[in-house]
UniProtKB/TrEMBL annotation, chain A:
Natural source organism: Caenorhabditis tropicalis
GO cellular component, one term: vacuolar membrane
Similarity field: Belongs to the glycosyl hydrolase 30 family.
InterPro entries: GH (IPR017853), GH30_C (IPR033452), Glyco_hydro_30 (IPR001139), Glyco_hydro_30_TIM-barrel (IPR033453)
Alphabetical keyword list: Glycosidase, Hydrolase, Lipid metabolism, Signal, Sphingolipid metabolism
Protein name as annotated: Glucosylceramidase
GO molecular function, one term: hexosyltransferase activity
Spans through the membrane: none
UniProt pathway annotation: Sphingolipid metabolism; Lipid metabolism; sphingolipid metabolism
From TrEMBL, chain B:
A Pfam match: Glyco_hydro_30
One Gene Ontology term from the biological process aspect of the record: glucosylceramide catabolic process
Biological or metabolic pathway of the protein: Sphingolipid metabolism; Lipid metabolism; sphingolipid metabolism
One MF term in the entry's GO annotations: signaling receptor binding
Sequence similarity: Belongs to the glycosyl hydrolase 30 family.
Domain Glycosyl hydrolase family 30 TIM-barrel: 45-392
EC number: 3.2.1.45
UniProt cross-references to Gene3D superfamilies, sorted A to Z: Glycosidases
One CC-aspect GO term: vacuolar membrane
Name used for this protein in its record: Glucosylceramidase
Length: 514, 470
């Protein structure tokens, strides 16, 4: 009886996956989904009754969040792989996923017809789409701007009387941030500077390396804090409030003389002191700043736990800090970096603040249809979430076919690529990789315990409990040829077994309704 | 003595950098001596061109109007590339965003349902009109990639297949009507055509693996189609009677055989003016071109398509590629040195992906559009074309030229403009700095004047010698 049901389910899975989940376009590396003014694929509704489950499958062969119902069975179906989840053992709260309102993203949105730009924003920020909860907002220019600028290039204007937002803010950032808020009223913005105005730096240059001039509580440091506060005041005038502030993007790259990108050096010590003596107190005194969550580091995991230990050991500094930002570019490093950080500082959240693919010198910046890049994303996110990280943020919403614009040619891939000439955009496999998490993990979800009965290096996984009691298991099969069948069981409800089929090179989210 | 100027473009960054060159009586030092002979004339150069593909139009339209105008001015005004020719696809190609013809109503042999499409009205006609504003003498030539699907043996416009039936039957007559209707409809928008190519790459129409729009003709069936259907239909129509018909429009490997087959037939030959040639087999010997000219000296050979970056393993758009500029110069020199009268680029402007192309047949182009920043890039290829098209005036003739030593890394050609000025174009393909040449140019018909200039490694130079009073 059970065996027949299994084969019937398998046949159903195979036959139903033949229909296309989106408007496909095939490239050497894989398939993209094409969206235009008349259509764009949407994620199927979850639509389940209590106890019912569904799998959503994305694969190299072309499935895109393809929904299939999965029925719980009492008996233990035949398969060698068992994933036991334990919803009574809880780890960290998942705060949510995000992307970045870079100048490049705004420029690309603006190059599309308004309706299509709105579709892009809806695909990311509505709860029927990626349901992003967080948005990173650069303070002045970065590598993904078309020029180098700050909000005050008048030297020695310490009181920041000449502070002004730029056309980039008014044309390329604010309108789209407002559109995103329309789709998610709870959207949390966090701002981050790549560099202070050049005249505040040891190098006298906004682009490239260098650190803040002077010392704690001195003129330069105070001026910079005024600059940061003015950013929030000016955005506030445009009706936009912020949830957080990251002290500095990749502070360690500010020491690299070969670095051409806007950057500023902080060591863990100088960041600690900057927060303790200048930034922290000033934020607390300002109406736009007092509730801002301050993030430290915003750099690669190799710096942990040392960076966090140094900054947070000082209790006064720690009182100003809410979280630690981490980038994904050293994710090949051991998870222990994250594990130890959590152990040392359990009350400070770790949040993924930047991730991207295609940035390396020898790589193609935009690799249409790349399954490898989607796979890397799933790996990275799983690795983070399995090791205490509370959220994950993509580096750009939407780039052009070159992987820009970028004034310094720092081109990269993105989940969405714009083709203004045809009023079209492509959704890369990476877009769906993020969806497998962000669409199903509701804000406030917790990661729960999970274990596979035998070691298997092809299958990566994690499991979560949503606030409404539904459970989410995200699995990835990295094997290029072999499929797997996995039986998922909650030790808290051990009668229910859910059989999940994982094709080769596929990602599956199992959603179990409460 | 006639004053001269040298225009240099180089991998190191020079872009048509102008330096004056003074003639000297005495023979200066040089590592290379180029002797030109303006009394020995070869073929007349008709001019250079590009293509008003749907992709080009889509990209122009994605830019602000003022910027799209700049692109066209850069190409078509005298101050820019001074292009004389515009290739205009008849309905869709690989560089369209969809497959369409002008009449998809099956069996409509009278072409009553013939209609231009939104691509013509939004992406082609407006930009052709802007180009004509910059060059009132712009010569347009149409070329079909495929007949409507219902006329083909495969019933599909995309992919292979020949016209149903044979010359003289209802399909062939209908197709000839289709061409005439194309000319009539464009005429209603104030656009008249100088020429018409019978079929783009007719040999491709037999390739079963080919997904792109194509229609198969052999030299024989092309000959018959022109003789029985197209030729007479054009001659009988107002819009078509003066249109110059081009045959082949395919790679040089097909020559001279293709031309011999079609033009041996006097009736067919009576309708034909020229032979179109593509650049994708330019590694083949020049003899293909040479023999063709020898066999048919009264028919011009025109380069009708060339592009870079189309290979499966190449990046489609290779920003700043000097190699591609060098290839372009090599190709043009090889053509012009072997009787070809002009050369046409495959697309005016593409996007960063090398498209749009419904079939992902991406390629590079001399200009790449970046609508998000309201910008465009001019590739080294743009300047490669400029070294010829800006300086060789319509009606120029190629003249004799020879180097005193065999130098494989240096290629050259020489021309005499109608106003008496002379143009010498050289490319140095050597990559080591030490391989810079000092070139001395002297006209055997006027051997007092010597012009000396530097030809650095990885550079292209055009020496322009103004007409002398004496």
């Amino acid at each position: 009886m059970t065996r027949n049901l299994f084969w019937a389910l398998l046949a159903l899975l195979i036959s139903s996956s033949i229909a296309s989940d989106c408007t496909q376009k095939q490239f050497k590396s894989g398939i993209v989904c094409v969206c235009d003014l008349s259509k764009c694929d949407e994620i199927p509704n979850i639509d389940l009754t209590s106890g019912q489950a569904a799998t959503f499958t994305t694969s190299n062969s072309g499935a895109r969040l393809h929904r299939d119902i999965v029925y719980a069975t009492n008996s233990d179906p035949i398969t060698s792989l068992h994933l036991t989840i334990d919803s009574s053992t809880k780890y960290q709260t998942i705060q949510g996923f995000g992307s970045t309102f870079s100048d490049a993203s705004g420029a690309n949105l603006k190059s599309l017809p308004d309706r299509l730009a709105d579709t892009v924003i809806r695909q990311y920020f509505s709860d029927s789409g990626l349901n992003l909860q967080y948005a990173r907002v650069p303070i002045a220019s970065n590598d993904f701007s078309s020029r180098v600028y700050t909000y005050n290039d008048i030297p020695n204007d310490y009181s920041m009387t000449h502070f002004s937002l730029q056309k980039e803010d008014y044309q390329w950032k604010i309108p789209y941030m407002q559109m995103a808020q329309k789709y998610n009223h709870n959207l949390k913005f966090f701002a981050v500077p790549w560099s202070a105005p050049g005249w505040l730096k040891t190098t006298n240059s906004t682009q490239g390396y260098g650190s803040l001039l002077g010392s704690n509580q001195g003129t330069y440091h105070k001026a910079y804090v005024t600059y940061l506060l003015k950013f929030f005041e000016e955005y506030n005038k445009n009706g936009i409030q912020f949830w957080g502030l990251s002290t500095q993007n990749e502070p360690t790259s500010g020491g690299d003389k070969k670095n051409k990108v806007q950057s500023m050096l902080f060591t863990a010590e100088s960041q600690r002191d900057f927060i303790k003596f200048d930034l922290g107190p000033a934020l607390k005194l300002s109406s736009v700043g007092k509730d801002l969550k301050v993030l430290i580091m915003d750099d690669n995991r190799g710096n942990l736990p040392k960076w966090a230990d140094t900054v947070l050991k000082d209790t006064e500094t720690a009182s100003y800090v809410a979280g630690i930002g981490v980038h994904s570019y050293q994710d090949s490093e051991s998870d222990k970096h994250l594990q130890q950080t959590h152990d040392n500082h359990p009350n400070v959240f770790i949040f993924g603040t930047e991730a991207s693919e295609g940035y390396k010198a020898k790589e193609t910046s935009v690799d249409y249809g790349s399954w490898d890049r989607a796979e890397d994303y799933v790996s990275d996110i799983l690795d983070d979430l399995n090791n205490w990280v509370a959220g994950w943020t993509e580096r750009n919403l939407i780039l052009d076919a070159q992987g820009g614009p970028s004034w310094v040619s720092d081109f990269t891939d993105a989940p969405i690529i714009a083709f203004p000439a045809l009023a079209q955009f492509y959704k890369q496999p990476m877009f769906y990789a993020i969806a497998h998490f962000s669409h199903f993990l509701k804000p406030g979800a917790v990661r729960i315990d999970h274990s596979l009965n035998v070691p298997n290096y092809d299958i990566q996984r994690s499991a979560f409990l949503n606030p409404d009691g539904s459970k989410v298991v995200v699995l990835q099969n990295k094997n290029m040829l072999a499929p797997y069948n996995v039986v998922v069981k909650d030790s808290q409800q051990s009668s229910d077994h859910y059989q999940v089929h994982l094709g080769p090179r596929s990602i599956v989210t199992l959603y179990i309704q409460n | 003595m006639g004053q001269a100027a040298l225009y240099t473009s180089s991998n190191a960054g020079a872009r048509l950098h102008r330096d004056l060159v003074y003639a000297t009586d005495a023979e200066p030092f040089g590592t290379l001596h180029l002797t030109i002979d303006s009394s020995k004339k070869y073929q007349t150069i008709q001019g250079f061109g590009s293509t008003f593909s749907d992709a080009s139009g889509a990209n122009l339209r994605s830019l602000p109007d003022k910027l799209a105008d700049t692109v066209l001015r850069q190409y078509f005004s005298e101050g820019g590339l001074n292009l004389q020719f515009g290739r205009v696809p008849i309905a869709s190609t690989d560089f369209s965003s969809r497959v369409y013809s002008y009449n998809d109503v099956a069996e409509d042999y009278m072409m009553q349902n013939f209609n231009l499409t939104k691509e013509d009205f939004q992406w082609k006609i407006p930009y052709i009109q802007i180009a004509k504003k910059y060059n009132q003498n712009l010569k347009l030539f149409g070329a079909p990639w495929s007949a409507p699907g219902w006329m083909k043996t495969t019933k599909q416009m995309s992919g292979p297949g020949a016209l149903n039936g044979k010359a003289g039957d209802n399909y062939h007559t209908a197709y000839a009507t289709y061409f005439v209707k194309f000319l009539e409809e464009y005429s209603k928008s104030g656009i008249s055509f100088w020429g018409l190519s019978t079929q783009n790459q007719p040999t491709q129409g037999s390739d079963k693996k080919n997904k792109i729009q194509s229609t198969l003709f052999t030299a024989e069936t092309q000959r018959d189609f022109i003789k029985s259907d197209l030729g007479p239909a054009l001659k009988a129509s107002n819009v078509g009677k003066d249109v110059k018909v081009l045959i082949m429009d395919d790679n040089r490997g097909n020559l001279p055989k293709w031309a011999d087959t079609v033009l041996k037939d006097k009736d067919a030959a009576g309708f034909v003016s020229g032979i179109g040639v593509h650049s994708y087999q330019d590694s083949e010997t020049d003899k293909h071109l040479d023999e063709t000219n020898k066999n048919h000296p009264n028919f011009f050979i025109l380069g009708t398509e060339a592009s870079e970056g189309g290979g499966a393993k190449d990046p489609s758009v290779d920003y700043g590629s000097w190699d591609r500029a060098e290839d372009t110069v090599s190709d043009i020199l090889d053509d012009l040195n072997n009787w070809v009268v002009g050369w046409t680029e495959r697309n005016l402007i593409l996007d960063a992906q090398g498209g749009p192309s419904w079939v992902s047949d991406f390629a590079d182009a001399p200009i790449i559009a970046f609508p998000a920043l309201a910008q465009f890039y001019k590739q080294p290829m743009f300047y490669a074309i400029a070294h010829f098209s800006h300086f060789i005036k319509p009606g120029a003739v190629r003249i004799d030229h020879s180097l005193n030593v065999i130098e494989l890394e240096v290629e050259s050609s020489a021309f005499l403009n109608p106003d008496g000025s002379k143009v010498i174009i050289m490319v140095n393909k050597a990559s080591l700095v030490a391989t810079e040449h000092t070139v001395v140019v002297q006209d055997a018909a006027d051997n007092r004047n010597h012009y000396q200039f530097k030809l650095p490694h990885r550079s292209i130079t055009t020496l322009y010698i103004q007409t002398s009073q004496f």
